[in-house]
Amino acid sequence: MCLDHPEVQALVGRIEDRRIITYGDNPQADARFVDLKTEAGASQFAVLIRDRVTGEERRIAALELPMPGKHNVSNATAAIAVAVQLGLSDEAIRKGLAGFSGVKRRFTRTGAWNGIAVFDDYGHHPVEIRAVLQAARVAANEGRVIAIVQPHRYSRLASLFDDFCVAFNDADTVIVADVYAAGEAPIEGVSRDTLVGGARAAGHRNVIALESPDRLAPMISAMAKPGDFVVFLGAGNITQWAYALPGQLETLAGGQG
After folding, report:
1. Residue 16 belongs to a domain with what CATH number?
2. Is residue 31 within 8 Å of residue 23, measured between CB atoms?
3. Which of 43, 81, 90, 99 is most deeply packed, by most CB within 10 A?
4. What pTM did the predictor assign?
């Protein structure tokens, strides 16, 4: 159980019929990640494994996960906790972690053009979006983060509207597409434009409405610079746009880049 979430931590003491192993960066966790650094898009860290009975700690150092993001490191720490229970050696854990190729549609790199990296992510909930953009911000270093978001379902946007409006703070520019209905009927007052207005009202300085998908490549070509990250976010057909964009940018440039 991840001890970094107050709700989860409150539940730990109520579970009496199961053995519990906690993880995260909480100092009280059984498996805790420490010394986190991000270099060249990879996360470097160590994990401390605490024995509840003896109080002894085992330190597994020199770990590297080939993707950025504190949330990804937290997930990796959970896997390491399981590996320790199964008796794997430190070296086996390091090797397995370093060889992890990621999960499709989780900060998946779809290509690049002229030094601009393009990523696809399934994130469509405000918590996911914040985590992905925080990871992108760290990995991009001096580059900018351009987020393209396709809200998924009118009902989700309506019920979590205030959370969505403040989910994009780590993006320098936010481009909002039409809502992907996923079979739902539209809800009055819930749309691309209301999200654009809400994010602006919440303080974001650069939020743009995407009039149609075919206008996206020219927009990115005009605004993105080498070193920038373009991150597509959503559970709808936006993944197709993410894979198409690198080629579209090259075509616009006349095959150069």
Report:
1. 3.40.1190.10
2. yes
3. 43
4. 0.78
